# Entry
Amino acid sequence: MEKNNLSRKLVVFVLFAFIVGLSGCGKPPKDVVRKMALNYLKSDGLILDDIKYLSAYSKDGGYTVNIQAGDALCEMPMIKGEKDWIAKGISCSGQFLSHEEIAKRKKALFSEELKKEVAGANAKGPQTLENGVRIEKATFDGSRLSWLMTSPLNAVEFTEEAKKTIMTELIAKLCTLPSTRNAFEAGFSYGYDINSVDGKPVLSLTINAKDCQ
# Structure
């Protein structure tokens, strides 16, 4: 009799462990959770490494996943679709990232983009514009994206009025570019270093956010 009771208890225990194991395996995978959370929170400057899967509990036929996103704590309800997991929104409390960290990341991102822009421009070689200005090369020193240009004008033709006209035209053109505002917010400036046709430096102009105001 005792032996039969022991056998029944063992069967119940094994069945319970099996069910618990199945429910654990049925939770949304951590990599899926992190990517879905980032899709909701990408506008807050987060990257995938900031999303940490903490725990999950069953609720309303699915799971609610607890996540740490930066310094904030979030809950994301999820259900299993026919093939993939589906997130039903996310709610968070606390601050994700400091303004300083967001600015730092934005600057690093734009720094890499500007390096690529320089490499791409220089790979094309010197380019001559319609007005006869020749773009010799681009450089980036970590804060200023510079364009070295040669003008078809002689040095004596670069009067103060001529310089003012060129500066106004360059500023107006640059400030209409979609990428300019974000670059300025990240702390970068654009520079134009112009030589005369006889090789003499005649104008060096740096444009930053205040010039576009």
In short: The longest helix spans residues 99-124. The chain has five helices and ten strands. Residues 100-212 form a domain with the GMP Synthetase; Chain A, domain 3 fold (CATH 3.30.300.250).
